[in-house]
Amino acid sequence: MFAFGNLIITIAELLNFLIGIYIWIIVVRTLLSWINPDPRNQIVRFIVTITEPALEPVRRMLPFMGGLDLSPMVVIILLYFIRPFILQTLLELAYRIK
Predict the structure, then answer these.
(1) What is the rounded CA–CA span in Å between residue 34 and residue 19?
(2) pLDDT in tens, 65-91
(3) Quick one: three-class SS letters along 21-60?
(4) Contact 72/27 with Cβ under 8 angstroms?
(5) Whether this model's pTM surpasses 0.85
(6) What does the pLDDT read at residue 67?
(7) Helix axes 71-97, 2-35, angle to 10 degrees
């Protein structure tokens, strides 16, 4: 059971890292939208592909703001609220198992 607890701690740390990277990818996408890069660029397509599943549902729920897209800010705020909950839950589970 000790190894399983360590596995859960490792998963929690990995999720923390991945959520942090995802937040930065959303920030990069927002900055890219200001400079209007070539949409055929592979890096731009990757960033759009990886962020659109999180941004599109939020974009549909928000009212039209005259061309101002607030969905990246909303998703980042949600991630900052969700991250401690997920991590704390996993860490408590791991320490109970250990």
Answers:
(1) 23
(2) 888 899 999 999 999 999 999 999 999
(3) HHHHHHHHHHHHHHHCCCCCCHHHHHHHHHHHHHHHHHHH
(4) yes
(5) yes
(6) 82
(7) 170
